[in-house]
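agent> step 3/5: call structure_predict on target 'Rod shape-determining protein RodA' (Jeotgalibacillus proteolyticus).
agent> reason: downstream docking stage needs a structural representation; sequence fetched in step 2, passing through unchanged.
tool.input:
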Amino acid sequence: MNTQNKLSDRIDWTLVILLIFFMIASVLAIASAQTTGQYAATNTNFALRQGQIYILGFIIIGITMSLDMDQFRKMAWVLYGFGVILLVGLLVAPPSIVPYINGAYSWYRFPVLGTLQPSEFMKTFTIIALARVVASHNENFAQRTFKTDLWMLTKIGVVLGVPLVLIDAQPDLGTMLVFMAIAAGIVLVSGITWKLLLPAFLAIGAVSSTLIYIVIFAPSLITRYFDDYQLRRIYSWLDPYTYSSGDAYQLTTSMSAIGSGEIFGKGYQNRQVYVPDNHTDFIFSVVGEEYGFIGASIIVSLFFLLIYHLTKVSLQTKSPFNAYVCAGIISMITFHAFQNIGMTIQVLPITGIPLPLISYGGSSLMGVMFALGLVFSMRFHHKTYMFSSEEEV
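tool.output (status=ok):
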């Protein structure tokens, strides 16, 4: 009997175990974060809700896994179009449905159910759409030329541009950067010649460096093009202690909390530094203070293992479409984790994006679980197609 036909052998148990570890770390960190006074008035058990969202996330994985990747490829434009409609709805719906939260119109509010941020799901919809664009293009143009590569890059730009414009209108800069990271990851593995990519990346680097230089040494040149709060956020990142009572308050308290944890931390629920929003965007400060360098390293290691596993799946699959989807998911999670952890220790500016699978947040967690459900689908439906005969013994 071929044991590979067993249901249990078609499930990616490595990924299941990693998600269980993430769930435990998330619930414990949030349970500790909500003990501070700011959450007492809300009368909400965020840790319990996060556990419930994780259960819902596993259900989403099960539903996603029931469909094979060929079906997702066929549905790519339907999912992408649905996501675009949801983003457009944020701009036209009344405030009773789309409230103004944290300086942006990014969430739908539903009675009983709570809020939903469609951009978190649009990330995965865009990954599927971009993967289809690249896979179809490479199938149609077997002979690669500079012209065909430029045409592929143009199509990628159009698919990416639509959600970027709609998200910019909210506005939500952090989410826009995630979409750019997703596209960059897929472009890097798309086969586009480096003669085209290298000048593009060098130009982006040069523009970014020039803007930073101007912000620091000649801000008067760009004040008319940027809102005051955007400039303050940059200055508070570069010189947080000058703005510690205002825009850099979260950053300075986060660094104090993480630094005070030292090597082994202060112990569970023994925090002494108050950090606003420490159950969402600044959850890493809770880990750093309570468990120190050791605990923070464990969280980083979990992300490393997750990225390593997703990379392994990407390299083992023989389907280009699947590989491009994996590349997009890897780019999304890597950028999220790097940006979130970096902003809590002043390596990167604060952008307001959560730490995936750890921060409290229904839309973010369900969006990532949906994306990982695609990886489960690859293993569930294509194991004998994906893996070499040596691995199937």
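agent> step 4/5: record observation. The mean pLDDT is 86.
agent> proceeding.
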